Amino acid sequence: MTRLHTALVAIVIVICGLGVRALWDGPVAKYAGDALYTALIYALLVLLWPRIRPWTAGIAAAALSWMIEFAQLASIPRWLQPLLGSTFNPPDLLWYAVGAAMTAVAHAAYTRRG
Predict the structure, then answer these.
(1) Which residues cross the membrane (predicted)?
(2) Model-level pTM?
(3) pLDDT, position 109
(4) What whole-number distance in Å separates Cα of residue 45 and Cα of residue 1?
(5) Phi, psi of 92 (to 5 degrees)
(6) CA angle at residue 22 from 5 to 61, to 5 degrees?
């Protein structure tokens, strides 16, 4: 996957995240946002390391998302809260894993196709 393709995927993920927030409210938007947040982290990892294997990127993206979530148990600086959140929510951990797994499956299918 080229860096250009990966950058385009990252842009599409951001657009999807903004679209979900604009169209829905409540748990659908929140948990879809969690999955997309991890998908964006995944895309950024692939952007940095284009040869990373899909499952390695998936595990790393989920781990980074979980680290950020667990950091919310401590005090996140106020200026970072819009990006990283401020309240620990255990169901978020599941949706981060879902986002990482779905993105890894899509990436693996794309690389097998090519």
Answers:
(1) 7-24, 30-48, 55-73, 93-110
(2) 0.92
(3) 95
(4) 12
(5) -60, -35
(6) 45
